[in-house]
Design the sequence.
C-alpha cells in the first residue's frame, strides 16, 4: 500500500501551512493542537525539533510492552537521519490528528500500529529532513546535490558547510514544509531491520517508568470501590460507620458503579473497605453459572439460526469421503495484566484531567466527559505506560469510575483496583463452542468442511461503547446499540481465524450463532483467533490422522505452493527438526494467519512414566519487513507464553453470576520454571510490515494439543488442556 | 514512629506499623518503582531487600522493617550490573514486573554469584511476568553473573 499525497495529508493532518499558521492544526473537534512553542520546528503533528536540537515524537499509540515507541523512533530516525536513541517521546494527546488511519479511533489494537504507520512515519521523518536541508541550502547558497543530511547535521562534501539541526531550526520553521519526498531505498537503511535496542529499557529497569498506578497529582487521595459481585446489580444500601471511624479514612459514598471508600493511601482505604457492608440489588435471571453457559452453547450448536459467514460449495459428492466430526469448547479468560487497573482524576475549572494507561485515550475522554456532563474538549487525558494491556485497557470502565468518584469528592483521587477486582471485573474473552466436520477422501483430499461457531458476541457489547467516542455525543445510545446488535449477528470477532481458512478444501462453510450472556466481554490478545485457531488447527490435525498422513505433509498438500503458510511451516519444521525427534519426544504443529501476519509453531513435549512435559517451542513468522528483530522475537515468545498459560491453566468460571477466581493462585500463569526454551525464526520478507503483538498467540494452543495427541493418543478438544 | 534504613538513608515514618511496607514505600515515601501486582505474595512485583534478602513488600508489615535495612529498585542506583544487563538484553516489555525481577535477581547473585540456569529458574520462579520475558531475565542474569569485577556487597555500600 502506498499513500498518495492527498491521503497522506488527510491521514496525518499535516498542516501544509502549519508553520505559517503557527501550527494551528485543527481537527474535527475544531480545537487547535498546541504542542511545544513557536520557536520549535514543527513540520507536522508528530514531530517537533526544539531550538536546542531536541527531537520529540508524539506517540499516537499506547506503549504496553509491544515496543511501539522503539519501532516508531526507528522509522522516523531512518529518514530524519538521527540515531533512534537521540529521539524523545511524548504520549500524544487526544486529537483527531492522532486517530488511527484505519480505525478512526485513537486506539491501540489489532496489532496494527506499525502496519498502519510505517509509511506515514517515514514520510514524517523524510519531509522534516528535506525541510532542514532546504534551510541549509538557503543558509549556504549550495544546491541540494552538494549537501547531505546525516547524524543530525547537514554537511557539504567539502566540509565547508556543517550545520546541526539545532542551528537550522530557526530557518526551517519559516520555510514551507517539503513534502512528496522519495523514501530511502531498503539498501540504504541503517536502522530499519537492524536496530536492536529498546528505547524504553532504561526507565523500565531503574524504577523510573511511570505507569498509571504512579500518577499522583498534588493532594491526591486513594479510592477503592466495592462493586457488585454479579454484573447486573447496583448498590441498594450500605453501612459504613465502622469504616469511617478508622484512621485515614476520608469518605464512603455510593456511586453508579459501587461504594467508594476514600482514604489517605491504598492501605487504609482497603482496610476500611473491609468494614463496609453493602447490599446490592438481587441478580436477574438468565445464564449465571458456567455449567448453564456451557449447556447453552452446546444446545445452540444443535439448533438452527446460524448466520453464514462463508459458503463455498463443494464439487465432490459428499458420500465419497469418510466423515470426520468433532466438537470443541473454550472457556472465559481473564487478561490478568500485571498492573491492576487504576485511574486518577483531578477536576479542573471546566472539566477534568485523567491519568491512565489506556489503549484508547479518546474513548477514555468520551467516557469521562459523559460521566462529568462536560464537552469532550474539557477533558484532558494523560496517557501513561501500560503495565500490560492485551486488550483489557481498550475499555474505560476504570475511567468512568474514577471520574464519578472525583465528581462527588471534589478532590484529586486515584482509584486502585485490587488484583481480585481486576480478576472479577474483567471484560472477558468469551467462552465459545464449535462443531466442525469434513469429508476425507482416500487420496487425502478434503471436502465439505463445515464449521459452526456458537458463543457470545464481543462486538455486540463493545461497539456501542466505542461508537460513543466516534460519533457526536448527541447521538443517543439506542442507535448505537442497534448497530451493536446488528454486527453481533455475524460478529467478525467471533469468526476471525475460521472464516479465512487458508486450505484449498473442496467446499468450506463457516457459520455463527450469537448466544448473548450477561457477562462483560472484551478483546483478549488475538481475539477470535485465540479460540478459532485452536479449533481449526486441532481439527486439521484430526483430518491428517484420519487420512493417515503426517500432519505437516497433510497441511502442505492443501496449501498453495508459494504461499506464506508453506514458507513458515517449512521454516518451523526445519528449526524443530520435524519428524526426527529422539524417542520419548513428541511434536505438534499448527499454522495460523492473523493481523496480516502468518505464524507456524511446533510444540515439543516429552513423556516419562505417563507424565508429559513441555520441552521446547519453535516458531516461524512472516510479518513482512521486520523493523526491530529482537522485539519481534520477544513478541512471539511473549505471545506463546500468554497462550500456553491459557492453554494449560486459563479458565474463568461463574457461580451465581459472579466470577469464582480471584488472584494468581486460582488463575495461574506460566512461571519461570514452567516456561520451556523457545526458538523463533524470522522469515525474510520485503513486503510492508504486518502485525506482531498478537499473531504469536493463536497457534500455540493447537500445536500443544496436537503434541499431546502425538504423545498420548488422546485428543483433547476442550481448553484448558491436561498434561497427561 | 518506625525508623529504618532505606537505600542507605535513615528514614522515620509515622504510619500504622501493620501497613505493608509496599504501601509505605509507594504512598508515604513516593518510591513508586516498587510495584503492586497481587497483594498476596503471589507475583513478586513488590520485591525489595530486607537486610539483603528478597522479600515481598506487599506481605511484610512495616513493623518488620524497624531498625533494619531496606533496599528498593531506586537504591540499586541504575549502575548495578543487572540493570546494565537488563538494558543490553532488552529484557523489559511492559516493564511492570521488572523492578521485582531485578530485586529477586540481585538477591540471588549476592548469595550465589555464579548461578547455573536451574538455580536461576528456581530463584526467579516467584516473579510472574505476564509479558513472558522469562528467557531474557535468565540471559540477563547469566551475563551479569559473568561480569568479573562485580562485588555483591556494593549494593549496600552507599
Ligand atoms: S504484589 Fe507482592 S507478591 Fe504480588
Ligand atoms: S514485562 Fe510486562 S509483566 Fe513483565
Sequence:
Amino acid at each position: 500500500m502506498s499513500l498518495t499525497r492527498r491521503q497522506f495529508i488527510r491521514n496525518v493532518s499535516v498542516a501544509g501551512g502549519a508553520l505559517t499558521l503557527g501550527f494551528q492544526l485543527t481537527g474535527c473537534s475544531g480545537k487547535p493542537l498546541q504542542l511545544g512553542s513557536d520557536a520549535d520546528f514543527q513540520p507536522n503533528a508528530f514531530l517537533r525539533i526544539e531550538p536546542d536540537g531536541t527531537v520529540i515524537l508524539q506517540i499516537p499509540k499506547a506503549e504496553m510492552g509491544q515496543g511501539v515507541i522503539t519501532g516508531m523512533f526507528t522509522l522516523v530516525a531512518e529518514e530524519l537521519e538521527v540515531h533512534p536513541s537521540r529521539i524523545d517521546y511524548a504520549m500524544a494527546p487526544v486529537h483527531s490528528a492522532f486517530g488511527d488511519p484505519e480505525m478512526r479511533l485513537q486506539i491501540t489494537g489489532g496489532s496494527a500500529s506499525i502496519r498502519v504507520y510505517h509509511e506515514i512515519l517515514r514520510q514524517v521523518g523524510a519531509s522534516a529532513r528535506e525541510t532542514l536541508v532546504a534551510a541549509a541550502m538557503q543558509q549556504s547558497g549550495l544546491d541540494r546535490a552538494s549537501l547531505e543530511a546525516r547524524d543530525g547535521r547537514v554537511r557539504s562534501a567539502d566540509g565547508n558547510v556543517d550545520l546541526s539541526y539545532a542551528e537550522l531550526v530557526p530557518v526551517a520553521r519559516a520555510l514551507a514544509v517539503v513534502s512528496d519526498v522519495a523514501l530511502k531505498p531498503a539498501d540504504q537503511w541503517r536502522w530499519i531491520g537492524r536496530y536492536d535496542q529498546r528505547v524504553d529499557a532504561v526507565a523500565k529497569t531503574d524504577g523510573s517508568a511511570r505507569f498509571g498506578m504512579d500518577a499522583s497529582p498534588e493532594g491526591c487521595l486513594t479510592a477503592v470501590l466495592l462493586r457488585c459481585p454479579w454484573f447486573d446489580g447496583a448498590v441498594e444500601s450500605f453501612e459504613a460507620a465502622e469504616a469511617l471511624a478508622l484512621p485515614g479514612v476520608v469518605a464512603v459514598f455510593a456511586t453508579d458503579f459501587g461504594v467508594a471508600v476514600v482514604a489517605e493511601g491504598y492501605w487504609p482505604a482497603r482496610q476500611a473497605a473491609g468494614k463496609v457492608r453493602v447490599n446490592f440489588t438481587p441478580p436477574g435471571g438468565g445464564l449465571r453459572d458456567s455449567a448453564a453457559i456451557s449447556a447453552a452453547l452446546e444446545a445452540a450448536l444443535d439448533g438452527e439460526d446460524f448466520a453464514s459467514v462463508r459458503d463455498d460449495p463443494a464439487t465432490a459428492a459428499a458420500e465419497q469421503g469418510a466423515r470426520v466430526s468433532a466438537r470443541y469448547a473454550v472457556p472465559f479468560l481473564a487478561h490478568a495484566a500485571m498492573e491492576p487497573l487504576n485511574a486518577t482524576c483531578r477536576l479542573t475549572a471546566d472539566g477534568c484531567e485523567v491519568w491512565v494507561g489506556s489503549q484508547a485515550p479518546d474513548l477514555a475522554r468520551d467516557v469521562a466527559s459523559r460521566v462529568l456532563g462536560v464537552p469532550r474538549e474539557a477533558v484532558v487525558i494523560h496517557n501513561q505506560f501500560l503495565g500490560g494491556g492485551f486488550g483489557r485497557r481498550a475499555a474505560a470502565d476504570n475511567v468512568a469510575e474514577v471520574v464519578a468518584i472525583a465528581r462527588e469528592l471534589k478532590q484529586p483521587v486515584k482509584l486502585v483496583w485490587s488484583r481480585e477486582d481486576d480478576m472479577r471485573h474483567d471484560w472477558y474473552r468469551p467462552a465459545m463452542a464449535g462443531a466442525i466436520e469434513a469429508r476425507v477422501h482416500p487420496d487425502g483430499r478434503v471436502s465439505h468442511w463445515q464449521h459452526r461457531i456458537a458463543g457470545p458476541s464481543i462486538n455486540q457489547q463493545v461497539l456501542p461503547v466505542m461508537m460513543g467516542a466516534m460519533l457526536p455525543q448527541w447521538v443517543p445510545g439506542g442507535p448505537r446499540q442497534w448497530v451493536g446488535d446488528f454486527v453481533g449477528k455475524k460478529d467478525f470477532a467471533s469468526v476471525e481465524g475460521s472464516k479465512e481458512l487458508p486450505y484449498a478444501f473442496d467446499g468450506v462453510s463457516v457459520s455463527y450463532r450469537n448466544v448473548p450472556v450477561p457477562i462483560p466481554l472484551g478483546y483478549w490478545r488475538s481475539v477470535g483467533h485465540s479460540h478459532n485457531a485452536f479449533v481449526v488447527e486441532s481439527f486439521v490435525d484430526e483430518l491428517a490422522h484420519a487420512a493417515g498422513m503426517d500432519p505437516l505433509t497433510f497441511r502442505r498438500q492443501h496449501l498453495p505452493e508459494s504461499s506464506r503458510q508453506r514458507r513458515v511451516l517449512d521454516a518451523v519444521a526445519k528449526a524443530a527438526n520435524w519428524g526426527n525427534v529422539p524417542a520419548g519426544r513428541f511434536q505438534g504443529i499448527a499454522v495460523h494467519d492473523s493481523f496480516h501476519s502468518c505464524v507456524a509453531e511446533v510444540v515439543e513435549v516429552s513423556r516419562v512414566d505417563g507424565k508429559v512435559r513441555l520441552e521446547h517451542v519453535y516458531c516461524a513468522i512472516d510479518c513482512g519487513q521486520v523493523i526491530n528483530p529482537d522485539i519481534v522475537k520477544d513478541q512471539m515468545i511473549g505471545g506463546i507464553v500468554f497462550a500456553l498459560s491459557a492453554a494449560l491453566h486459563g479458565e474463568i468460571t461463574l457461580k451465581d453470576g459472579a466470577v469464582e477466581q480471584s488472584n494468581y493462585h486460582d488463575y495461574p500463569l506460566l512461571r519461570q520454571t514452567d516456561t520451556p526454551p523457545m526458538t523463533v525464526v524470522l522469515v525474510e520478507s520485503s513486503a510492508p510490515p504486518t502485525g506482531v503483538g498478537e499473531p504469536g498467540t493463536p497457534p500455540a494452543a493447537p500445536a500443544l494439543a496436537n503434541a499431546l495427541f502425538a504423545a498420548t493418543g488422546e485428543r483433547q478438544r476442550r481448553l484448558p488442556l491436561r498434561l497427561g | 514512629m518506625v525508623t529504618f534504613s532505606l537505600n542507605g538513608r535513615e528514614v522515620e515514618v509515622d504510619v500504622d506499623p501493620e501497613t505493608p511496607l509496599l504501601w509505605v514505600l509507594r504512598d508515604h515515601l513516593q518510591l513508586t518503582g516498587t510495584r503492586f501486582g497481587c497483594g498476596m505474595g503471589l507475583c513478586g512485583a513488590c520485591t525489595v531487600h530486607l537486610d539483603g534478602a528478597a522479600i515481598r513488600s506487599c506481605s511484610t508489615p512495616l513493623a518488620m522493617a524497624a531498625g533494619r535495612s531496606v533496599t528498593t529498585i531506586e537504591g540499586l542506583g541504575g549502575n548495578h550490573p543487572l540493570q546494565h544487563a537488563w538494558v543490553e538484553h532488552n529484557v523489559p516489555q511492559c516493564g511492570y514486573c521488572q523492578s521485582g525481577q531485578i530485586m529477586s535477581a540481585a538477591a540471588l547473585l549476592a548469595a550465589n554469584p555464579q548461578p547455573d540456569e536451574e538455580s536461576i529458574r528456581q530463584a526467579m520462579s516467584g516473579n510472574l511476568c505476564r509479558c513472558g520475558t522469562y528467557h531474557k531475565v535468565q540471559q540477563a542474569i547469566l551475563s551479569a553473573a559473568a561480569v568479573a569485577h562485580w562485588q555483591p556487597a556494593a549494593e549496600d555500600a552507599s
User: Anything to note?
Assistant: Residues 1-30 of chain A have pLDDT under 50 and may be disordered. The pocket of FE2/S2 (inorganic) cluster (ligand 1) is lined by residues B 36-39, 41-46, 56, 58 (CB under 6 Å). The first strand of chain A starts at residue 25 and ends at 26. The longest helix of chain A spans residues 113-140.
